[in-house]
Specification:
It is a single chain. The chain is α/β, with parallel strands linked by helices and about 425 residues long. It is about 30% helix and about 20% strand. The chain is built from ten helices and 16 strands. The protein is elongated. The relative contact order is 0.07. The structure holds guanosine-5'-triphosphate and magnesium ion (MG).
Length: about 425
Amino acid sequence: MGEADKIGQRIAECRGKGGKSLNLAGLDLEEIPPAVRNLRQLRNLDLGGNLIEALPAWIGELDSLVELYVIGNPLRTIPDSITRLKRLRSLIVTAGSKVIVPDMGGLTHLRRLALIRVGLPEVPPWIRRLRQLQLLWLDWNPLRNLPEWIGELSQLTTLHVSNARLRSLPIELRGLEKLEDLRLNGNTQLGLPAEILNEEVPQILEYYFRIRDPTARQRLNEFKLVVVGRGSVGKTTLVHRLVMNRFKRFRRTPGIQITKWPIEINGERVHAHIWDFGGQEILHGTHRFFMTERALYLILLSGREGTEDADAEYWLSLVRSFAGDVPVIVLLHKWDDYPFELNRALLVQKYGQIRFLSTDSETNHGIDALRKEISQQAVALPGLKAAWPVAWQRGGRAVAAWWRRRTRRMRQSPSRTRAATLSRW
Ligand SMILES: Nc1nc2c(ncn2[C@@H]2O[C@H](COP(=O)(O)OP(=O)(O)OP(=O)(O)O)[C@@H](O)[C@H]2O)c(=O)[nH]1
Ligand SMILES: [Mg+2]
């Protein structure tokens, strides 16, 4: 019996028995034998190691197929009709050169997809719709990057993109909680040493985002709220009132205190990182180094000492000089202890857009209005829901620690530290 007859017999047998699997691997086939078209019951078809350049359009008629293996063929095109194989869970293709691949985003049952060495210049956008994907192999394609939406494929356990041309990784990879097998070897531009590449997924990503690309950006629902004002004006007490909704007495704040405050804005949970600056005068000079553009500023003033106008000018000019055109809320604070007024029109004329509110942490006066105002202003901040440097949160903690060390030194020897600080900056 010739080779062709043997193949014919195998197909006939499969048909006769209503077989679910057909193995046609390694038979030097140049095309799928036409008789396969009749095997409508087939669930698994293995065409590996043949000489097939094109899958026929009728492949779409084999709509019971669950697994299709086309490994090691000189394939050039995959026909559109493949999108009719709605039950397909595994599609494994490895070729040797460019393959025309149709939009297969409708194959939403796919769990395993391999498109290896098929000349993909980018990750096909339709893969985004394959929400059930667990395994994705894209090795040996000239891919320069991975899309951010890769982070939406939440079922992924395996991602192989070895020997591509990746230049960077998206931070969204860190959101793939089930990912346990990440292969990135052969992408020299990522700068990942061999010993790291063999590590577990969290170690690979930690190394990459900490050492290689600490400026990678992450979408976070958070923003920075900076609270300033002279010593004892009530900053720390206000932060406690905002976050815990209680009035409590505090000692004076020795440096910066950073508090995380979860709030709801437009039905979404957002975290404010509140930077509460110690108001002692000796610390003011360094405030400016922590004033950043992507933040909302609260300036607290009180009236009992009679310095409210000068204080308002002092803090507004500091904020405008070092943080720029940021949103500012000026609080006429400790209101129920001592109500007072400011020349609001003049301040607005000199320092631009400002919101004014009267507040008191002890009596809760104006606190709800303040929360509301903060939410409204935060929505407009460029940082909210937009890109933030990843290192930002860590940065906050490092800054707080550095500040504590510094103020400790400063108390021991104020003048020397100040000189050292100046030369340092
Ligand atoms: N009547 C009244 N007293 C307040 C209010 N907020 C704070 N205080 C009191 O003012 C004093 C200083 O409050 P803090 O919150 O520690 O002031 P601070 O601005 O954080 O001070 P520093 O950390 O030294 O910069 C404390 O005695 C508070 O109890 C308020 O809204 N109304
Ligand atoms: Mg304080």
